[in-house]
Specification:
Blueprint: H1 2-24, E1 28-35, E2 42-49, E3 54-59, E4 64-71, E5 76-83, E6 88-95, E7 109-116, E8 121-126
Parallel strand pairs: 2-6, 2-8, 3-7
Antiparallel strand pairs: 1-4, 4-7, 5-6
């Protein structure tokens, strides 16, 4: 009887660990493409609460801003907003550190922004 209870408990523990492992690698990708106006400065505000990679690269496409975000929806919230009239881009990535015992040593996400080469940029960030 004790063996059956022990095996049942061990089986449930293995199922729980497998589910947690599967969710940890469940990353989602969002891609946003915005067209900017060449006669206005592109204003970018970054509100990043994340320990993972964040990259800013030049864009080969003229007049476009491309935002690519890989993230785990269980561990973080992602939002972007672009005002084409004023060339204002807002990117927000908030880690849900209180959910599921999240550790800042783990990768929660990655954000890459490709800026146009021919538009002046004013960058404001909080990391």
């Amino acid at each position: 009887m004790k063996k059956n209870v022990l095996f049942a408990g061990l089986f449930l523990l293995i199922l729980f660990a497998a589910d947690c492992f599967a969710r940890a690698n469940d990353f989602k990708t969002k891609k946003y493409v915005f067209n900017v106006r060449s006669n206005k400065t592109l204003v970018v505000k970054l509100d990043i609460d994340i320990s993972s990679d964040f990259r800013i690269r030049p864009n080969k496409e003229s007049k476009q801003v491309i935002v690519e975000i890989n993230y785990n929806p269980e561990k973080m919230d992602v939002d972007t907003d672009f005002n084409a009239k004023n060339n204002r881009l807002f990117v927000s990535m908030d880690v849900n550190s209180w959910k599921g015992g999240f550790s800042y040593d783990e990768d929660a996400g990655e954000c890459t922004i490709y800026f146009p080469l021919d538009v002046p940029i004013d960058l404001d960030s909080r990391c």
